[in-house]
Amino acid sequence: MKMRSVISSFSAVKRPITCLAFLVLGLGSIPMIEARSVGHAPTADPQRLKADVEMLTEIRPSRSAANWQAMQIAASRITTEFLETGCRFRTQGFRVVVCEPDNSQLLGSGLPQERDADGAPSVSHPNFRPHLMQGWSPDFIPKLAEDVVVAELIDEIIPINGLDSLRLAKDLARQEGIFTGITGGATLAGALEVAQRAPEGANIVCMLPDTGERYLSTTLFEDVPADMTAEEIEISQSTPRYRFDPTPPVDDDDAPPPVEEEIVVTPEAVAFVDDVVGDNERPLVMFALEWCEFCWSVRKLFAEYDIPFRSVDLDSVEYQKDNWGGDIRAVLKKKLGSPTIPQIFLGGEYMGGATETFDAFNDGHLRDLLEKNGIAHKDTSGVDAYSFLPTWLHPR
Predict the structure, then answer these.
(1) Which tens digit of pLDDT belongs to each residue from 217-271?
(2) Does the N-terminal or the C-terminal CB of the chain have fewer CB atoms within 10 Å?
(3) Does 197 share its domain with 309?
(4) Distance between first and last Cα of the chain
(5) Average pLDDT value over all residues in the chain
(6) Under 8 Å CB-to-CB from 58, ≥6 apart: which residues?
């Protein structure tokens, strides 16, 4: 029986063929058949399923051992109902096949697991060896799995070769578009082995309950390079609008010089800035924004020491008509080479922004300029101008 036949087994189950059916599971899926170990034979009773679902909902918040066991049994029974009952209704026979690593056969060894009084494993199982199937076969036999084995609910245990697991996981992706992991390939390996000897027309349900993305850093993908191969790059270059190769670097000698944006200013705005900056009656002027944190800080500094100044608030209603504030700001940018706000002048001399003004305050230069221009103010000694910045700003 080919892989396609195994993968299509769910559709095969729909046909009323009276023959043998197999449920092939990885060792990590054994809890699914625990329902039968508590004496519950699968039925098609919808009330039984409803009761199990309601019970799970009610006791899930509890973390007691008794409730946890009840949750496991209910969840197992629900899953088993849909899988096992469906197969039994359509077949005369039903067999459960469990797979485990061939180099770490715990169930297949027949060796018992040593346990403490509460049933927890006390030591590692003597037959455990490191293996490829992540999620299968820890270094002990879980009590739940052991109970299933003791109750003879597993019909067959198949050892799986690690290399077969890797090969079939890749085949699933390449041939079937199923992106599963190493244990998925391992379970398929068991299903294919069952298919080799199953009678004609048998239904084989192979469960692959994991996805491949969690295996990207494992042996499964070690032959897949991190970077694109030459063949992949060639394919990507065949689609000009969707290329993955980097754009060739441009030689600096051949690169065109950067085009500076031309700043257009109006004569009216130029004249306004010159008049404001050169106003001897109000020598201290700040070109500002009404709701700028740094403008606030400068205003608070000047107010604290009774320093008179003029504030040209470029975003205020007064300067909004015909973008008058924008025209003034363009003049400042062209004149100073900086687009930032605020910009402060004293006696026709450009001081800078908020940081430069605070530095001038702290080193005494602002005091000297104020006295030079005849501007009276309170004593400014012993104060750090940066303390006027909002507390949520990083120190500057």
Answers:
(1) 888 888 888 788 888 888 878 877 766 666 656 566 666 777 777 888 999 999 9
(2) C
(3) no
(4) 75
(5) 78
(6) none
Q: What is the CATH number of the domain that holds 335?
A: 3.40.30.10
Task: Please report whether residue 258 resides in a domain.
Answer: no
- Cα gap 201→9, rounded to integer Å: 10
Crossing angle for the helix pair 267-277 and 324-336, nearest 10 degrees?
A: 70
Token representation of residue 345? 């002048």
Going by C-alpha positions, the residue among 187, 185, 181 that lies closest to residue 210 is 181
Residue 241: inside a domain, yes or no? no
Residue 364 CB coordination number (10 Å): 11
Same-domain pairing of 78 and 189: yes
Rounded-to-integer distance, Cα 342 and Cα 313, Å: 9
Structure tokens at 381: 């000694």
pLDDT digits (tens, 9 = 90+) for 7-56: 443 333 333 333 455 666 665 555 444 333 333 344 445 555 556 555 54
- By CB atoms closer than 10 A (0-12, 13-18, 19+), residue 366 is buried
pTM over 0.85: no
Structural domain for 305, as ranges? 267-388
With CA atoms as reference, report the closest residue to 134 among 219, 32, 221: 219
